[in-house]
Amino acid sequence: MNYEIKLIKKEQHKTSQWSGGTTTQLYIYPENSQYDKRDFLFRISSAKVQIEESTFTNLPGINREIMILDGELDLYHEGHHQVKLKKYDKDSFSGDWCTKSYGKVTDFNLMMNTGCSGKLEHLKLEKDNSKSIYLENLCKSEKQTYIIYCATGNVTIKLEESIELTQEDVLILIVNKDKNIKNNLENNLNKINIENKLEEANIVISTVYIG
Q1: Which backbone phi and psi does 6 adopt, to 5 degrees?
Q2: Is residue 154 within 8 Å of 164, Cβ to Cβ?
Q3: What domains sit in the chain, N to C, each tagged with a CATH number?
Q4: pTM, two decimal places
Q5: Fewer CB atoms inside 10 Å of the end CB: C or N, the chain?
Q6: Cα–Cα dist 48/70, whole Å
Q7: Strands of 63-70's sheet, edge to edge?
């Protein structure tokens, strides 16, 4: 398979303080962009909310997906909808909405600027279990990116090589539209296998389409 791959270990993450707790940037694309300048196409992060009530940062033009990794959260999007999120529940909303949250949690965030779209998915793997992510729809966009985040446990990612992910590690897989998709499919290189040999593991997969 023709692809770009990057492994980001837990110790490489950058954590900063915000008014309600801490936030850890897991990946930003392009990699030379800066969150404060809002010049990214997409950004993946995890935040610890340590106060009972907080107001989300206003982010005009940014579409957001949030998933709860630990705890429970009540989200109120003024003039839109409200939702109670439990562990591994998710919600989608616009960054320019007035959004308030109630509850102390650890969450996972996908922020997408104009020019891309995406989704979050939770995978739970019991001991000696495996699951596959299929790549048949690569031609939907100019560039498709998978971000695999190991929320708990330890797993092995099987591509043409084996890559070990421990808790809070991130694997980035980028495939471009101009690669030889047909050849990849014919050679059965159309999926990512995730294997778990130890205790229960929980994985968050972000799929982002650019262009």
Answers
A1: -145, 130
A2: yes
A3: 12-112 (2.60.120.10), 116-210 (2.60.120.10)
A4: 0.91
A5: C
A6: 9
A7: 14-18, 21-29, 42-49, 106-112, 63-70, 90-94
First to last CA, the chain: 21
Which pLDDT score, from 0 to 100, does residue 29 have? 95
Cβ neighbours for 54, distance < 8 A, ≥ 6 positions apart: 19, 20, 100, 101
Kindly tell me if the per-residue pLDDT of 17 is higher than 50. yes
Residue 109 · residue 49 · CB < 8 Å: no
E strand or H helix at 186: helix 181-186
Structure tokens at 154: 């330890």
Residue 93 token pair: 């909303």
Span 45-96, pLDDT tens digits? 999 999 999 999 899 999 999 999 999 999 999 999 999 999 999 999 999 9
Using CA atoms, how far apart are residues 68 and 49, in angstroms rounded to an integer?
A: 11
